[in-house]
Amino acid sequence: MKYLHTMIRVSDPDETIRFFNLLGLREIRRMENEAGRFTLIFLAAPGDESAQIELTHNCGETGYAGGRNFGHVAYAVENIYESCQRLADAGVTINRPPRDGNMAFVRTPDGISVELLQMGPALPPAEPWASAPNIGSW
Ligand SMILES: C[C@@H](O)C(=O)SC[C@H](NC(=O)CC[C@H](N)C(=O)O)C(=O)NCC(=O)O
Ligand code: NI
């Protein structure tokens, strides 16, 4: 068996694509279904195209409230501080800052939790992250 993708339903596909673009993912294909009034958009990191996230947008459907049964999707990043700074500069809330130089959590525009993990060993503590508080329900 081979892992293919995780699917999340999204209220605003363009806003969600912009979010994942900040993480370095790029759209690799999309499927419009006129009859079903939905669009599927697949994104992956260049060089890691086999690990995809599928965005499902149902026309006119918004206001998703996250089910407790879904946890998060996780990505390994080259530099957790640079990734979080890029997200923060773009207005994304860093809900669980990388105080330990290793792990951070953010959320997609619909509130899906995304874990960011430092590739390899944790980085040394660095401000502003070392003393940054959790934000929101974390
Ligand atoms: C292409 C393949 O990866 C799919 O996931 S298609 C699965 C299919 N999706 C839809 O019908 C999208 C619109 C639907 N209204 C929805 O919101 O899912 C499907 O069977 N979805 C049902 C599901 O529970 O995933
Ligand atoms: Ni699917």
UniProtKB/TrEMBL annotation:
Residue span, VOC domain: 2-119
Annotated GO MF terms: lyase activity
Coiled-coil portions: none
Gene3D superfamilies: 2,3-Dihydroxybiphenyl 1,2-Dioxygenase, domain 1 (3.10.180.10)
Signal peptide: none
Keywords tagged on the record: Lyase
Keyword tRNA-binding part of the UniProt annotation: no
Annotated Pfam families: Glyoxalase (PF00903)
Name of this protein: Lactoylglutathione lyase
SUPFAM superfamilies: Glyoxalase/Bleomycin resistance protein/Dihydroxybiphenyl dioxygenase (SSF54593)
InterPro entries xref list: Glyas_Bleomycin-R_OHBP_Dase, Glyas_Fos-R_dOase_dom, VOC_core
Organism annotation: Sandaracinobacter neustonicus
Organism superkingdom: Bacteria
